[in-house]
Amino acid sequence: MEVRKAVLPVAGWGTRFLPATKAMPKEMFPIIDKPVIQFIVEELLEAGIENVIFVTGRHKRPIEHHFDINTDLERHLEEAGKEKILKNIREISHMVNPIYVRQKQQLGLGHAVLTSEPAVGFEPFIVSLGDIILEKGEKVLRDMMDIYNRFGKSVIALFEVPQEDVSKYGIAKVKEIEDGVYIVEDLIEKPSPEESPTNLAIVGRYIFTPKIFEKLRETKPGKGGEIQLTDAMKLLLEEEVIYAYRIDGKVYDTGNPVDYLKTVIEFALSREDIGEELFSFLQELISKQIQPIDRP
Ligand code: G1P
Q1: Engineered SS bond to 204: which of 29, 50, 132, 238, CB 3.0-4.6 Å?
Q2: Atom of ligand 1 at shortest distance to CA of 253?
Q3: Which regions of the chain carry the CATH code 3.90.550.10?
Q4: Is 110 in the pocket of ligand 1 (CB under 6 A)?
Q5: How does pLDDT run across 182-237, given as a tens digit for each residue?
Q6: Contact 87/74 with Cβ under 8 angstroms?
Q7: Residue 215 and residue 117: Cα distance in Å, rounded?
Q8: pLDDT higher than 80, residue 115
Q9: Could you tell me if the CB of 40 is within 6 A of ligand 1?
Q10: Nearest residue CA, atom 10 of ligand 1?
Q11: What mean pLDDT is predicted for residues 71-85?
Q12: How far is the CA of 202 from the centre of ligand 1 (A)?
C-alpha cells in the first residue's frame, strides 16, 4: 500500500522557548512571515501528501486557525485591494485536509504518535516533526517513499551532526547497503558524546509501517520519563528491518533559540525584499565589534 497520510505531532510544551510558548505554539513561530509549521505542510504537499493528521493539545488552537478559512480577514483584504496577500491567505486555507487528534497528556513523542492511530488506521504513514525545516524536503520525502515502495518497511532520515551535538538527537548505527541507503542496526535516544555509536542523527522525517503502533504500546517511559519514539523503533527493529536514508541538503533546526535565530537570519538574507538591508545591518554590527551583552 502506498503512503498517503502524514502525522505531525504538535502538542509539545515548547519548554525551550518559555515564556514565549506559554500561550503561543512554537510551531507558529515565524521564519520572517511564514510559520514553521507551514514549511512542514508545504513539504508534504510538494511530495504529494494531502492528508495531514495533527496531534494537538489544548494550547494549540492557533495551528487550527492558520489552516482554516478566515472570512473576516479575506473580506478586509478584498476591501483594501490587497490581492497578492489575499491569494496567499486563501491558498493556505485550502492547503490540506486536516484531521486534529487531541493528545490529552504530553507523555512524549512516542505517545503523541500512538495517539494518531485511530486516524491513521492500518497503513504506512509519514511522521514529520515540526521543528526541522529541510532545504530539499520534498526530495527527501520522495526518496524515502521510493525506499518504502521497494522494501515495504519503515524508513528514517539521518544527517551528520558534530559529535558534541549528538545529545540533542536520536542517534542511529547503520550499515550501508547501496549508495545513500542503509539498514539500521541500533538506535539510541540522546546519548552522551562518549556513549554515542555514530554521529548520524534522526532528523524528524520517518515513514512507519503500522506495526510501530503495537511497539509504541509496549514502550516504557525512557529518556526524560517520556515515551520515546526512538525506543519504540528499537523494539520494532527486533521484528522488522528499518531502512535509513542520508540527507545531503541543509537541515534547519528551529527547536532551540540559537538555531531558530540562525535559521531566521539565513532565510532573511536570501530574501529579495529585506536581504540586502539585513546584510548591511549585520556587517555594521560586526564592524563595530559589538560584544554579547552581560545580562543579569
Ligand atoms: C526528537 C526525537 C529525536 C530526534 C529529534 C529531531 O527529539 O526524539 O530522536 O533526533 O526530535 O529533531 P526532540 O527534538 O523532540 O527533543
Answers
A1: 132
A2: 12
A3: 5-159+172-185+199-255
A4: no
A5: 999 999 999 999 999 999 999 999 999 999 999 999 999 998 899 999 999 999 99
A6: no
A7: 12
A8: yes
A9: no
A10: 169
A11: 93
A12: 7
